[in-house]
Amino acid sequence: MARIGFIGLGIMGSHMAANLVRAGHEVTGYDVVPASVDKLLQAGGKPAPDIASAVSGAEVIITMLPDSPQVAEVALGPGGVLESAAPGVLLADMSSIAPETSLAVAAAGAERGVRVLDAPVSGGEQGAIKASLSIMVGGAAEDFEAAKPIFEDLGRTIVHVGGHGAGQTVKAANQLMVAGIIALVSEAIVLLEASDVDGERGLEVLAGGLAGSRILDLKSASMLARQFEPGFRIDLHHKDMGIALSSARAAGVSLPVTGVVAQLVAAARATGHGSDDHSALLSVIESLSGR
Ligand code: NAD
């Protein structure tokens, strides 16, 4: 069992940290929001008043933060992880961020003897609760092997996808697919309802055929009921579509469908759905038809 410092105890991090406690690890956690740290205490972890206290004595540090600026600040900033982490410690950033930020953190870690992995996840809050996440890992193979037993307490599908930043590129590919599928499920709902076909029955039969998908399984009931409690916030998916498009530009490729879907996500955000679940894309697609 490992001594783990866990930074970022939000929708995902709170459940992931609780699963690590349940698996027998000693977890010390920090979040800027004190109520989130209290949740870890209730789950059997130890609260830390700042990053240095969460990192002190830890063998492994996990960060689960919203976006690149927060990861850069927490890892590289004054009073941050790299300032307090002992050489040999392993830092696994499980946030979804820009690959170039993962590369910068890995380079700064290497200078201090801290081993760094980018290890973003997919599977949503339910995947975090059930420890069934998909974890896509970039970094050195030996560091991946060292961290794998801990990842196995958080997820089911755990794959080393390449060097530093590769985990984030795979996550960007995941996010463009998820947003695209939600957009198409939304279009299916609009068509069915506008044609007076029962949406629930329509989606039920679609789920059993080639159009079936995890998103249809998990989200069709809440989408049909227009319940958009997050889950995964539109604001975060907007961030991820930006990462997908800037990664495409860096790689010199064209992703036309992703471009359109990114604009739908931007419209959802601009029309007040930023804090709603990403399935609120349905509202934007309905409004295009005046519904
Ligand atoms: P969240 O906003 O609920 O959690 C982030 C946490 O980080 C918050 O508790 C916040 O207070 C904390 N935080 C922010 N700045 C901090 C700092 N400087 N120091 C310490 N703590 C700080 O977000 P989330 O939904 O848990 O997502 C976290 C990451 O995981 C994001 O990158 C997101 O894109 C990704 N992700 C989310 C989901 C999902 O379904 N929610 C699924 C897969 C991946």
UniProtKB/TrEMBL annotation:
Domain 6-phosphogluconate dehydrogenase NADP-binding as annotated: residue spans: 3-162
PROSITE patterns: 3_HYDROXYISOBUT_DH
Domain 3-hydroxyisobutyrate dehydrogenase-like NAD-binding residues, every copy: 165-284
Domain of life: Bacteria
Keyword terms, alphabetized: NAD, Oxidoreductase
NCBIfam families: tartro_sem_red
UniProt record similarity statement: Belongs to the HIBADH-related family.
Protein name in the entry: 2-hydroxy-3-oxopropionate reductase
Species the sequence originates in: Kribbella sancticallisti
